[in-house]
Design brief:
By secondary structure, the chain is an alpha/beta fold. Helices cover 38% and strands 16% of the residues. The chain has a single domain, classed as Rossmann fold (3-Layer(aba) Sandwich), CATH 3.40.50.450. The longest helix has 16 residues. The relative contact order is 0.15.
Length: 196
């Protein structure tokens, strides 16, 4: 595991712990020798994370769609900045550059990114670990929704390990590093499982 893609809010949020944990995660990434891949912004939790990585002497790689956001949002002091044509290309590039994924608190964009990489992992497009940094229980409702999906028969229980949830960055990074990919067993309950 060399590079970690972090999905994070474009705002800092109302809880001071969000910003604190973004900075702590940045410190732990550098301490572990990991490079950061993220959305390329200099504001919000994304900016706090990237600035911490850079201040600690680490590498921060941003991926930003051309012309989609206001110019001052783009971080101009990154180790690398990849400009892409749209959001689809942005997510694909971030995934290609990364060996693992972590989600800090965020909004619709962060939720969408998390569920996309989980869905891709579920059907075998990638075998990379996915972590949630559960700051002050932020992701508890999402975890409950996943549990509801399992109880209702839409998510196989064997796919629960696709989401690794921890409250501390150092513990989360260690679990991602030691991740064993799930079996790419059949996810469709109406089809015969041919993986046996």
């Amino acid at each position: 595991m060399k590079r970690v893609c972090v999905f994070a809010g474009s705002n800092v949020g109302l809880n001071p712990q969000f910003e604190k944990m973004a900075e702590l995660l940045g410190n732990e990434l550098v301490k572990g020798g990991y490079e950061l891949v993220y959305g390329g912004s200099n504001i919000g939790l994304m900016g706090r994370l990237a600035n911490t990585v850079l201040q600690q002497g680490g590498n921060a790689i941003g991926v930003m769609p051309r012309g989609l956001f206001r110019g001052e949002i783009v971080h101009t002091e990154l180790t690398e900045l990849h400009e892409v044509k749209d959001m689809h290309e942005r997510k694909a590039k971030m995934g290609d550059l990364s060996d693992a994924f972590i989600a800090l608190p965020g909004g619709f964009g962060t939720f969408e990114e998390v569920f996309e990489v989980v869905s891709w992992g579920q059907i075998g497009i990638h075998r990379k670990p996915i972590g949630l940094l559960n700051v002050d229980g932020y992701y508890n409702p999402l975890l409950q929704m996943v549990k509801n999906g399992m109880n209702a028969g839409f998510i196989p229980a064997s796919h629960a390990p696709l989401l690794i949830c921890e409250n501390e960055p150092a513990i989360l990074l260690k679990k991602l590093k030691n991740y064993e990919p799930i079996s790419t067993a059949n996810k469709w309950s109406e089809l015969e499982d041919l993986s046996l």
